Amino acid sequence: MTKGETFGLRTFQTQKQKDPSLKKDMKKLPHDGARVWYECTEITVDQNQNPIFYGSYDTYQNEIVEAEYLHSTDVLCFYFKSFPQSADHGKGIADHKAKQIAEDFLKAVMSEEKFSQFTYVETESTQRDSVSVAYMRYIHGYLTDERLSVTVHPCGEVASYNGKNLYKYDKLESRIKKETLEQAERELKAGIDALNLKNVRQGDAVIITNSQGKLFLRISIFHDIELSKGNTVSADKQFYVNLEKVEPLA
Description:
The protein is mostly beta strands.
């Protein structure tokens, strides 16, 4: 098993810098028209200090909002709004209402056609009676890391949104074949089984990219390690297969 770092996986760090061309830039938020102004650009780099694929975002702010756009685009990928401690929480917000608010927000951020690529996953309560709504994108029935999460404040406004990988797979999807995914999953599971780990719990197979934008399939696992007789701890590992190196079986 080769370490993920060898293939540009899990080796990232973030840097902030100013883009002179955006010095006085202003954007209007798509869901409510609020104005935000350019603050800085956040660039994620690999171990060689090269910007990674889909890892640069422009931060815009006003007094109460922080928003991040995919670098040099109008693609909103992150949003956070501050609420005063005294904000009216009322009786909280019902899950179905929070889901509708989240959906309306996302349809303002992207086209309905784009939104239709996502599958609703769950709604759950978070801190201070807020509700988080999550959507995932699947390709050929496999999860991707193109995930959308919207948190709705009890007052009925969107408090935060995270869609850092929005549109990430639009230009990559044509390179992803169902047969290749199935073969990659078989190879991953066979490799994990061959390790003979104790009490293995496997996560879903997820399509991801490395720092250069090459496609991989990942499975995360938890397993037990025995420290002494009757005393075990849980450890986690991640396993990857390069989808562009897999030869589907005939």
